[in-house]
């Protein structure tokens, strides 16, 4: 298109205060192959000086200038250089301003967001100016000729004049057509902006400077179940968005006032809306016109309810995880202490029993001491359940059958005032959990529900299938989406407050009076479900009861058949003669107690204070070991690793684990799943039975 100017370089006066925008304009013109030179100014005096000094082919002017304006620049151009085409290049022109500018003498306008139009607009404006100057010359020549006609009475062909007049008419029609096209384009743009405004998921409200509602989009109206006519011209801070939330109207009023003064602000607000309690991030900002004056206030809001729920769930999960790590470590040390106490109390009781009636008082004292040890062991077991470090024996479980088998026991536990109802799913999915821990969890929840209904009520235990989608897991980041089997325990008791709900899974937290619970029941349930790969949901309202839902991942294993009973042969097996047991235990007191007890039971015993020492004994050719009895948590080499190495060298070796805190049980692989664990604290009777059972399994396998 540059050939239209016969290769001549054009002169451009650029009235633009932004160096970046000037560079973008220059780059766009060069890309179009236009040869030009440009002078840039952004003040009235600078423009006057430039027009007085040089001749320009075109003027390109921004609409908003510091201390100056595009409108003033147009007036100045019409005054000092009326023949030079004037083009607005601006990002702030509205439809009305653009039309008015064209009427006052501007030849065109180009939005900065569409600078690709600029080269054509410049060339067209210069060409039209050249044509106008040519027409003016022709008209001028015609007037000389007319002056000579009365003198010479000559006739002259005015075809060229008619042609010039036709070109001028066509040029004017073209300009009118361009104005019409620009106006239509602005109307279409306004329609698109209105469509975007209405379809946005963001809440958007346009306000007057004194805070009254001009317009609002559908998303904002849906939140308060209202229409435009319900809120138009209402005071925004007193509207249904904020009226029911204490303290918020004052915050909104202040934010609107600041925005009207030119200062934007952001606020995180929790609102009570007709659609429920929801959280939002609000922004209030001023809306400026082309002269930099604030004409309105825009309020926008993004709902953050789901995000904040997810953040709160994550914080709660992290808090419980940290408490779990602490309680697990405490339980480990405590169980070692209890093991020594229980063993020695039981041994002392064995000695006093030989004295008969003469030791009645000491025997009763020892009985009470042993009961106390067992109660303390139960507390540590619940701590381990909460910290997800208890040894689980997971197997395929039919939740329908498991709950059905508990019905009689539940009736006895709940008493006559509580009505029990069970709801089963005919096609329940299989899950892999520890049946005994599942039974303990259901019983725990049922007893808690009974205590929440002192005057009686209704308890529903429901089994069903559930599919957790991405929306659910977005609010519960520690739960992957997928298929789960569900067990829900729902009561009609007094319920719990929101504050209580945030703490119910913490160990030792209880709402019961002193002496009616340790506060470990729900924490044990929580730990068991989490260790099984599941999730616990709670829903409770004061006065309306509580629903606790246990979700377990679906297993691909088939449902177990009912009526199967485990058959064990050789029930009368006695202790194997000359059996050798290797005890690997890092705690000196527990190791000494265990070794002494096994020797008193008639076993030959070897002892090691850690894993490497045990491996050295196993590798000796002059030593034969029938059973490795190893603690799981030992420094340097864990019991898992010790068993793995020992079985690699001696596949026929029997292994029995013991632990008060079996760390990394989920990462122990096949070793952890196949080897039995004797939980600490254990008594002499427990130890004798576990050792005998492990050796009995070895004999049973050798016979087969």
Give the helix/strand layout.
Blueprint: E1 10-15, H1 19-31, E2 36-41, H2 44-53, E3 58-61, E4 64-65, E5 68-69, H3 70-80, E6 86-90, H4 95-103, E7 108-111, H5 118-152, H6 159-199, E8 203-207, E9 213-216, H7 218-223, H8 228-231, H9 248-260, E10 265-273, E11 276-288, E12 294-303, H10 305-353, H11 360-386, E13 395-397, H12 399-405, H13 407-414, E14 418-423, E15 431-433, H14 435-451, E16 457-468, H15 470-475, E17 482-491, H16 498-501, H17 521-531, E18 535-540, E19 546-553, E20 580-584, H18 588-600, E21 604-608, H19 611-619, E22 627-631, H20 639-649, E23 654-659, H21 669-674, E24 677-679, H22 684-703
Parallel strand pairs: 1-2, 1-3, 3-6, 6-7, 14-16, 20-21, 20-22, 22-23, 23-24
Antiparallel strand pairs: 4-5, 8-9, 8-12, 10-11, 11-12, 13-15, 16-17, 17-19, 18-19
Helix pairs in contact: 2-3, 4-6, 5-6, 10-11, 10-18, 11-17, 14-17, 19-20
What descriptive keywords fit this protein?
five-stranded antiparallel beta sheet; 704 residues; five-stranded parallel beta sheet; alpha/beta
Question: Could you provide a short overview of the structure?
Answer:
By secondary structure, the protein is of the alpha/beta class. The model is unreliable at 514-520 and 563-576 (pLDDT under 50).
What would your notes on this structure say?
It is built from 22 helices and 24 strands. With 704 residues, it is α/β, with parallel strands linked by helices. The strands form six sheets. It has a five-stranded parallel beta sheet, with helices on both faces. It has a five-stranded antiparallel beta sheet with strand order 9-8-12-11-10, with helices on both faces. Strand 1, helix 1 and strand 2 form a beta-alpha-beta unit. Helix 2 packs parallel to helix 3, helix 5 runs antiparallel to helix 6 and helix 14 runs antiparallel to helix 17. About 3% of the residues have low confidence.
